[in-house]
Amino acid sequence: MGATNDTLQEHLDILNRKWDSIFEHYPGGKPPILGEKPQSNDPNLLYIRIPNTNLSICFWPGGMEQYGQCCFDFFNPTEHTPVNTPNGFIITPLPQPGNIPFEKKLKSWKEAMQVANIIEGLEKYSAPEGMRLMLTYPEEAPFYFQIPSKPAMGFAQAQASVPPI
Fold first, then answer.
1. Alpha carbon of 96 to those of 71, 99, 127, 164: distances in Å?
2. Which of 35, 54, 149, 153 is most buried, judged by most C-beta within 10 A?
3. Which residues, in sequence order, are CB contacts of 67 under 8 Å at separation 6+?
4. How many helices (H) and strands (E) does the chain have?
5. Do residues 60 and 45 make contact, with C-beta atoms less than 8 angstroms apart?
């Protein structure tokens, strides 16, 4: 039966206890959020400088590891802040053998959701680990980069030399 005015608080308390028991299983009592922007002291952050600019590309897991993907955005290392995609910057996925080709242009999450006015620093992208991408930007040669990937658990990894027997 539903709550009445007299039992509303009792029902709310029961519901709150149920949610509290769900949230207590998450680290810090906070459920994971896919694509969440990282804190500046996150030990999982990786960077690639973009030649002839004051920008880098910043990579972080963003809860996407289980999907074999990685999040990234543009980052101003001087100001230590993420920035939205600068005008004229276009990221294009490069074809790889055995993979289904993507669209010609990689869209940010906000662009894919058709957000008209993106708050500065909130734009982000994601792509499969190991994907090769090309960044074109005004008056510069294309810049090629690759999404970081982690070794697959339980699989042997190639080494630079043959280990002794």
1. 20, 6, 13, 34
2. 35
3. none
4. 2, 8
5. yes
DSSP H helices in 24-144? 109-112
Q: Which residues contact 50 (CB under 8 A, 6 or more apart)?
A: 56, 57, 74, 135, 137, 143
| pTM reported for the whole predicted model | 0.76
Instruction: Please provide the DSSP assignment of 12-37 as one string.
Output: HHHHHHHHHHHHTTSGGG----TTPP
What's the mean pLDDT when you consider all of the chain? 87
Query: Other C-beta atoms within 10 Å of 91: how many?
Result: 21
Most confident of 86-90, 113-117, 129-133: 86-90
Average pLDDT over every residue of 99-128: 89
CA-wise closest residue to 97 among 130, 68, 66, 136: 130
